[in-house]
Design brief:
mainly beta
């Protein structure tokens, strides 16, 4: 992925095969194949044969175009909330989770819990798989009302049997606030109560 990393010598001295290994640190990605760089880096060591001839450190690199790396864990970097407004019956509350990389949603429907006037409701995943922005939607139901602002319930995505993974199949961090603060929802109000005629007062007799 454009970054240089080193596979260190592990074993094999005294034989014709030397073993080098790199334990992947977090945060590396290479989806078009790694590449090897000649010559070997002695890093202060000696490589000699039995009669003390120095090894020729240059080599012809093997084909590594099918060796990929993905040690970057997907996580939510920001949350786009519905615009400040009062949402009425059948209007949608859309929450967009913006990730640090593209993710795929599979198997089932993840959801986000929100509190509407003391009742937990769920904004279900609606769209965005294959991109870095997943949209979750809740539709206002009849008789719901929240005049002082809704709020998140907890800070963890309810996977609900689903998976959210990157191209390297790393599971995403389910915490909404692992790398960003939860935004306030106090300016998002709900009024799903439809006005109805409850009685008629006629003219006096």
């Amino acid at each position: 992925g454009g970054q240089q990393a080193y596979a260190d010598y592990i074993s094999g001295t005294g034989t014709t095969a030397l073993y080098f290994a790199l334990t992947l640190p977090a945060g590396l990605e290479d989806h078009d194949g790694i590449s090897m760089v000649s010559p070997l880096d002695l890093n202060g060591a000696n490589l000699k044969d039995g009669i003390l001839n120095d090894l020729d450190l240059t080599y012809v690199a093997p084909d590594t175009t099918n060796i990929f790396v993905d040690s970057l864990i997907p996580y939510v970097v920001s949350i786009t909330t519905p615009v400040a407004d009062t949402y009425i019956l059948n209007e949608d509350l859309n929450f967009v989770l913006n990730y640090n990389e593209n993710v795929d949603v599979a198997t089932a429907t993840p959801r986000i819990a929100v509190d509407i006037n003391g009742t937990t409701r769920y904004a279900d995943y609606a769209s965005g798989t294959g991109t870095n922005a997943l949209t979750f939607t809740y539709t206002v139901q009849a008789a719901e009302e929240d005049t002082d602002g809704i709020s998140f319930v907890g800070s963890v995505i309810d996977l609900n049997g689903a998976t959210i993974k990157d191209i390297g199949t790393n599971d995403s961090d389910p915490n909404l606030d692992a790398f960003t603060a939860l935004p306030s929802l106090v300016a998002i109000l709900v009024d799903g109560i439809v006005p109805t005629i409850t009685s008629i007062t006629p003219p006096a007799d």
